[in-house]
Design brief:
This protein is mainly beta. Helices cover 0% and strands 43% of the residues.
């Protein structure tokens, strides 16, 4: 997520798992409103990420099969 008052980018991980290689600073837990589903707001880990190249991978359930989408990130 982009923090507009500081103009820095931050990563937010939904499953509360952060590999040490991804975090430049110590992660902190914050409760951020979700706004959908009518449930309690979830706790999320907020941290400054390290810079560098990477690969974004997403698995999509297509109903009768799964599709994996990969993209290089710079």
């Amino acid at each position: 997520m982009l923090n507009s008052d500081k103009m820095t980018s931050e990563s937010s991980i939904f499953m509360l798992e952060v590999p040490v290689a991804f975090a430049a600073t110590k992660p902190e837990i914050d409760v951020i409103p979700l706004g959908i589903g009518g449930k309690e707001d979830p706790a999320r880990l907020i941290f400054d990420g390290v810079t560098g190249d990477g690969i974004q991978v997403t698995m999509v359930d297509m109903g009768d099969h799964f599709r994996i989408i990969c993209a290089d990130q710079r």
